[in-house]
Structures are given as C-alpha cells and as structure tokens.
Specification:
There is one protein chain. This protein is mainly alpha-helical and 152 residues long. The chain folds into 2 domains: 1-87, RNA polymerase sigma factor, region 2, helix turn helix motif (Rna Polymerase Sigma Factor, Chain: A); 89-152, Arc Repressor Mutant, subunit A, CATH 1.10.10. 72% of the residues lie in helices and 0% in strands. The protein has helices at residues 4-26, 29-45, 56-79, 94-104, 109-119, 125-132, 136-151. The longest helix has 24 residues, at 56-79. The protein is globular, with a radius of gyration of 15 Å. The relative contact order is 0.12.
Length: 152
Amino acid sequence: MITRSDVEDLYRRYGHVVFRRCRAILGREDEAEDAMQEVFIRALKYGRGFRRGKKPLPWLFTIATRVCFDRRRLLARTTGLQADAVADPPGLNPEQRVLVLRHLEKFDSLTQEIVLCYHLEEMTMEEIAAHVGRSRKTVGKKLARFKQESQS
C-alpha cells in the first residue's frame, strides 16, 4: 500500500515530468496543472496498483494519460470543442499532434505510453523499451500498428 508520504515523495521527484506529460496531451498550462494534481490524488487513492520494486514513472504516466484523456473527453462534451492545441510539443506540427491525440484513445495503455513517449517526449525506441519494460521489437510493432491504424 502506498502512503501519503510516498505520494509526496513521488510528487517532489516526478511532479515536473508528470506536468510536462499532461501539458503535452492537453495543450494548456492551467488544464495540465489541474490534471497533474489529479494524478497524484489518484496515486494516493489507488496506490494498491503500484508494485514495490517497480519504477514509479511508468505507473504515474499511465495515470496521467488516463486523467488527461478523461479531461479531453469532458472538455469536448461540455464545450463542443476538441482540446487539440494551444502548445505544440517538440517534434510534431499542430496537425500531426491533433491526429496523434485523436487516434490514441482507441489503443491499449501500453500503446498509448509508447506513442506518447515517441512522439511527445521524443524518446528513442531503445529508451522507450527500457521505460516500459518491453523489447525494442515490441515498441517498434506497437508504433507501426498505431501508424497503420491511424492512417486508415
């Protein structure tokens, strides 16, 4: 079980990285700040999902991705607008960013994490493989599948 003290430590160590992920998905500083806070609230609430001895950042990124996509869906429902762009992450032009984010919600959490790391964090496939604990070959297959299915 994860404690409040554990979450406070995770916040100090990884809050800025989680914020960057949220901002990349949501495109707005204010939304990203709120989402980041929600990530750590959920981490405390659902701390039993964290396995001791595992790296915490992939777990936090999974929570962040879910929180941000929930917020995007809510924003789309309440305003009729897509939360597609204010800030553009490095490596993607605004059109590419919109396409990646629109198609990403259809995929499993591992594929989401891989695609976000590749396109938004600009990590290499080797870095992503180490980050998610899978082989480089799996990372390549997931990226290829995402590319293929998002273009059809």
